[in-house]
Design the sequence.
């Protein structure tokens, strides 16, 4: 399978200094949904900006649809569609008008443009709202219009930067179906997300990003298969007991790894059903009160914790709280 996207040793530093990309490398095969999964600030949006010619890396190289991003950015722009975190929809224009304007920007005119606009309105379920002002659209409708605008010139590669952020769960699932449909039509899609479930359910292949580097790659099943056994999650009832909890669990033969995230203790074990009583017994003996305890099969959060040394939630909290990705 040919690669639709190739990134090699991309590096980017912003004033501060803030290291956004630290030798990031990956490739995406044609016709795949590829997810860059990571917390806010991991470097996902900067990666998309480099690949879509919106910023220049300090070093490294990249190709999209076989075209060198740095050597021929204009040619790259002709073969890609981009849907950013912020909507590009003009609220004061009708849905149809938004698509027509986008098509004209790409040099599409006349009958060809009218036919393409009708195709997209129908495909995205927006035909009945084509004459409504986009400002009256729901969040899900606006996002579908955003995607339609990115597809109007029939790109070979579509970039979706946090495409479902802020959408209700039901609308998010519907958007996943739409993205799968585009993949099934042969489109290559790179999406960034900080939703673990989204990457798990949607992506053919995943790259987990942390601090500007790829720390793990593979399908969701492959990544989780690296972690044999189960995870026991324990919430400590009293503050200040986390160190005692770590020490107590580290001494158990059943426990392979222990991670502490605030009052949450995550212990990797061989078999959760047999290890859970031993875990609770060790914590009780150490004088550590437990508020709740559960066990689960490996998740992408466990994979992230293994490779990044912290939980996904902890990584999210370590950002500045702006909710936007600065890197």
Sequence:
């Amino acid at each position: 399978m040919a690669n639709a996207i190739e990134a090699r040793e991309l590096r980017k530093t912003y004033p501060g200094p803030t290291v956004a990309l630290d030798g990031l490398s990956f490739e995406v095969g044609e016709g795949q949904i590829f997810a860059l999964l990571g917390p806010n600030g991991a470097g996902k949006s900067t990666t998309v900006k480099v690949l879509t010619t919106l910023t220049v890396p300090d070093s490294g190289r990249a190709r999209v649809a076989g075209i060198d991003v740095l050597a021929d950015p204009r040619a790259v722009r002709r073969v890609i569609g981009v849907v950013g975190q912020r909507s590009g929809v003009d609220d004061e224009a009708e849905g149809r008008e938004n698509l027509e304007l986008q098509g004209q920007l790409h040099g599409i005119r006349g009958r060809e443009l009218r036919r393409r606009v009708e195709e997209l309105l129908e495909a995205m379920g927006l035909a009945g709202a084509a004459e409504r002002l986009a400002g009256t659209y729901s969040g899900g409708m606006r996002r579908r219009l955003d995607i339609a605008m990115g597809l109007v010139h029939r790109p070979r590669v579509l970039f979706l930067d946090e495409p479902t952020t802020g959408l209700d769960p039901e609308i998010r699932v519907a958007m996943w179906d739409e993205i799968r449909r585009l993949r099934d039509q042969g489109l290559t899609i790179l999406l960034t997300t900080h939703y673990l479930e989204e990457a798990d359910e949607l992506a053919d292949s995943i790259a987990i990003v942390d601090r500007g580097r790829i720390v793990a790659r593979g399908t969701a099943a492959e990544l989780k298969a690296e972690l044999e056994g189960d995870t026991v999650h324990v919430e400590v009832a009293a503050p200040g007991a986390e160190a005692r909890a770590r020490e107590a669990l580290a001494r158990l033969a059943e426990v392979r790894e222990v991670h502490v995230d605030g009052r949450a203790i995550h212990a990797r074990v061989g078999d959760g059903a047999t290890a859970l009583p031993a875990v609770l017994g060790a914590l009780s003996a150490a004088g550590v009160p437990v508020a709740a305890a559960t066990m689960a099969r490996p998740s992408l959060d466990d994979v992230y914790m293994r490779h990044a040394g912290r939980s996904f939630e902890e990584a999210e909290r370590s950002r500045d709280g702006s909710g936007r990705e600065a890197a």
About this structure: Confidence is low (pLDDT under 50) at residues 320-327.
